[in-house]
C-alpha cells in the first residue's frame, strides 16, 4: 500500500513505508527491503494512468524496524503509506505472503529475503493490487516479470539450474531473475475509495492484520 503524488512534469511518485517486526527483523533488513522495492519498481520506468494522463512511476520507500510494535499499532493505523510485515525464520507454508491483494500487511520468511531475492518487490506488488499472472509458461519470452510466482516455466538461463528439464526440480524460475515489467506498472490502479486531493492518491488498501509468530511444533 502507498500513496501516489503526481506532478506537472509527468512523474508519479509512489511513497511507502515498510515496518518490520518479529524475531528475525532488524533495521538493516528493513533498509534492504525498502531499497529493493524502490529500485526495482523505479527501474522499470513504467507508466501509470491517472485522471486520463500517463505518468512515469518512481518509487520512494522507507524501511523501519519496530521491535516494540504492538497489535493495536497496526489495528488502529490510518496512514496509507504504512505496510507491516512480520519476519521470522519459520513460516507456516514455508513461503512469504501478504494477507490479500490490495493490503498493507503480511509475513516474510527470513530465508526468502537474501539480497537480490526480489521477494520483497514481488510481495509489495500484491499490496498495490497486482496478482500472479494466469499463465505461467514464459519459455521463449525472456526475463520473467516481478509478479510471476515460484514454479513459473522460463528459458533455461532463468531457472535454478539451466541444465534441468523444464518443470522438474530445479527446472523452474529462480526468483532472483525477475524484473518489474512496464506492463506490470501499467496495470496499477488507484483506489477510488480514498481521495486525498487533486494530486495525491492511494494504491492498495488497509488490511491492518497483526501476525503472531508461527509455531513449527504445533
Mean pLDDT: 96
Summed up, the helix count is 4
How big is the Rg? 17 Å
How many angstroms does the end-to-end distance come to? Answer: 32 Å
The ordered string of helix (H) and strand (E) elements is EEHEEHEEEHHE
Measured by DSSP, the beta-strand proportion falls in: 15-25%
In terms of quaternary structure, what is this?
single chain
Structural class: alpha/beta
Shape verdict: globular
Largest pleated sheet: 8 strands, mixed
- Residue ranges: pLDDT <50 for 5 or more in a row? none
Count of extended strands: 8
- Fraction in helix: 10-25%
Summarize the structure.
The chain is α/β, with parallel strands linked by helices and 218 residues long. It is 17% helix and 23% strand.
What does this structure look like?
- This protein is α/β, with parallel strands linked by helices.
- Helices cover 17% and strands 23% of the residues.
- It has four helices and eight strands, in the order ββαββαβββααβ.
- Strands 1, 2, 3, 4, 5, 6, 7 and 8 form an eight-stranded mixed sheet that branches.
- It is globular.
List keywords for this structure.
alpha/beta, 8 strands
What topology does this entry show?
Blueprint: E1 2-6, E2 11-21, H1 27-43, E3 47-50, E4 53-65, H2 71-75, E5 82-88, E6 97-98, E7 105-109, H3 119-127, H4 182-186, E8 200-203
Parallel strand pairs: 2-4, 2-5, 5-7
Antiparallel strand pairs: 1-2, 1-8, 3-4, 6-7
Helix pairs in contact: 1-3
Amino acid at each position: 500500500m502507498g500513496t501516489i503524488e503526481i506532478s506537472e512534469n509527468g512523474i508519479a511518485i509512489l511513497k511507502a513505508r515498510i515496518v518490520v517486526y518479529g524475531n528475525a527483523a532488524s533495521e538493516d533488513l528493513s533498509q534492504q527491503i525498502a531499497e529493493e522495492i524502490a529500485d526495482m519498481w523505479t527501474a522499470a520506468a513504467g507508466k501509470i494512468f491517472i485522471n486520463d494522463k500517463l505518468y512515469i512511476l518512481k518509487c520512494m520507500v522507507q524501511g523501519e524496524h519496530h521491535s516494540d510494535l504492538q497489535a493495536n499499532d497496526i489495528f488502529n493505523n490510518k496512514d496509507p503509506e504504512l505496510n507491516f510485515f512480520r519476519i521470522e525464520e519459520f513460516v507456516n507454508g514455508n513461503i512469504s505472503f501478504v494477507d490479500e491483494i490490495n493490503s498493507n500487511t503480511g509475513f516474510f520468511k527470513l530465508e526468502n529475503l537474501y539480497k537480490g531475492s526480489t521477494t520483497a518487490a514481488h510481495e509489495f506488488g500484491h499490496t498495490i493490487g497486482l496478482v500472479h499472472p494466469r499463465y505461467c509458461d514464459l519459455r521463449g519470452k525472456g526475463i520473467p516479470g516481478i509478479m510471476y510466482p515460484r514454479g513459473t516455466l522460463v528459458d533455461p538461463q532463468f531457472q535454478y539450474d539451466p541444465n534441468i528439464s523444464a518443470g522438474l526440480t530445479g527446472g523452474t524460475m529462480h526468483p532472483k531473475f525477475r524484473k518489474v515489467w512496464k506492463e506490470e506498472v501499467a496495470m496499477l490502479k488507484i483506489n477510488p475509495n480514498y481521495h486525498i486531493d487533486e494530486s495525491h492518491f492511494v494504491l492498495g488498501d488497509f488490511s491492518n492484520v497483526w501476525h503472531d509468530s508461527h509455531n513449527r511444533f504445533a
